[in-house]
Amino acid sequence: MKLFRKAAAFFAAAVFFTILIPFQTQTAKADHYIASAPYSLEKGVLTLENGEKWYKVNEFENGNDYIITVKGSDDSEVMLTAANDSISEYIWHYYRSTMVTSIAPEYTTLSSRSFYLISHENQLYAVSNWWTDGDSFWEYRDGSLRYNGNGITSYLKYDENGDVPFSCTNDLSEAAEVSLYSNGEYLSRAIAVQPSAESYVIEGSGYAAPTFSVKLHSDDITVDSIKWFTDGKVQSCAQLSFTADSLKNMKAGVHRVNCIIEGHDGQNVHYRERSADAAFIIAKGVMPDSFMTFSDVHEQYFFITEAIEKIMNHTNGYVPALVICTGDLVNGPTASKDIMLDRYYPQIVSYLGGLDAVFVSGNHDSGEAASIMSDNAGLGAENQRSPYGGQIYKGTSAAAALNGKSSHFAKGLTVYGLNFEASLDKINGAFYYSYDRTIEKLDSFLKKTAEDYHGELVVISAHSGLHVLGVQPESVSPYGRQISKWIGENQYNVDHSYELAKLINSYAEKYNMDIVYLFGHDHSRQESELLMTEGDTLISTIDYNNRTYDSQPLKFTYAHSGYLSTTIGCANAHFSFIYRNGDSYSFDLMSTYDDTLRHTDIKAKNTFKEPVVTTVSSAPTTVATKTTVAGTSAKKASDSPATGDSFSITGIAIPAVILMILSRKRKKI
């Protein structure tokens, strides 16, 4: 019995030490938040004890580090600091999840080396935990630090006399007055309008030196420093506007101009921003009825310029007449219209180098923003700025004649933009994807186009495809393996795809129309870029939930545009260059990394005949002074794409020398 009692006592002691001692240790070292003072703080510059300087900013930027301060009753600022008995940390790294699906919840974190800043039921925690399956993100706005969890907003609260100085509140009037400080390469954004070339120019035309300008977000910003760079070399100009004299009289090629701005404002906010790299394109001419197209660039906009440069190398200096972007311009959960237009669109314009472009939205983009971007180009858009899309380019339109630059030589093209929202709906809180609302709108466009058809190439630019992933035999990975059947679920296998393909087939056959359907989207499902032409069998979804599909022989061309990024799935910086080549259309899938390409000649059904017009409009004068079209001789200044050239491209063939150059450079991709 004594032995049993000793064993029981030993067991009880073991339980006690196993449970209580760790609890006491944890209690002694419990993570908590304290207020700590900086070494000094003056005019928006916070100095730490080690002499390191941090600068007041007005927003979070993904990947940057921050010090968060709150103002006390005496107007002094103290730092939000996480601590335990061993350490204290006040530098917070901001992370925003971007490599996610478009319908994923918004998710950000603020973390130090040892702690996570977490809010739950208005209490602050210092360990990572996921209390919500919805939105969970921090943001800094109007002088307050805000946390949004499942749609409920709370604000950082500071009680300088309380035992727990930091907590959260749902009452904005109780929110602490918060400031952010950073010491990264990027501070606050200063640039509202990015530098961009007004137009491409023609080699040997005597063009004027190009001028690049930036516009600041506010007149309250005082510029402390501005440096301009041309092809990486610093220039002597220190103004908001810069004339690049060194780019005069250059041979055909692409140059890059950018600036770095530093400044401050009346609230002691500091600014440091590097502009987009504005492309300046010096071309030998324009390839008639040609266009560059790509999808899924996902904020890697420098690839746009590299793709244009690759085409120029491929054609001995000629540029495409039009650029068509088929969606997913940004990352993360679907961006709002305002963010798309204010933050991303100006950057994209910079990288285009003055070439005309139209846009379609992907699942990460605002459809309304994409329609506005196309409408802003003024090239014959008839989409009423609808989130669903519509006609975004017509080469023979009065608007294209008035506003077009490079697209003056794409009169044989008409483009319909099928925004991703056209297939997206929400039923009982769940997302649902179907083309049922699209069929009538596309039918109306095709009917109108058929009634006034002159042999132009009709491009239907979309983000989602029409085939069943993994069921379509051509649906393979870059390694040639069949991908999983129906992978990507309904978003990638859209209901009524069969009916939409059947509609396009009917117009291509009945009216003998040249039609190409271009799309992207599938890189995240590891699907390699496919190309199918007339006579190939397309297998399309009827109803995803029931896994029903049907097949039909194609009467049009069906292809990926090319995934022009490298961050997600099988995307590998590809794009397509499509151009009229005698009695065919050539379709080149190209890479920015090397000279490999997949070349396909597609027999054209028609020869474009430009309709007779009774009036000719003149485009406003820009920087170019002479234009050469592939297959023509140099034209005088009044015939420049920048000065309202009314030159007809009917019947122009690409010269033999260009075809020879193209054929020599073809390697399999």
Automatic annotation (TrEMBL):
List GO molecular-function terms, semicolon-separated. Answer: hydrolase activity
Record bears the keyword tRNA-binding: no
Query: Keywords on this record?
Result: Membrane, Signal, Transmembrane, Transmembrane helix
Please name the source species.
Answer: Ruminococcus flavefaciens
Q: What is this protein called?
A: 3',5'-cyclic AMP phosphodiesterase CpdA
The record's InterPro entries line, in alphabetical order, gives:
Calcineurin-like_PHP (IPR004843), Metallo-depent_PP-like (IPR029052)
**Which residue ranges does UniProt annotate as crossing the membrane?**
646-663
Keyword Iron-sulfur listed? The answer is no
> Where in the sequence is the signal peptide annotated?
1-27
| All residue ranges annotated as the Calcineurin-like phosphoesterase domain in the record | 292-524
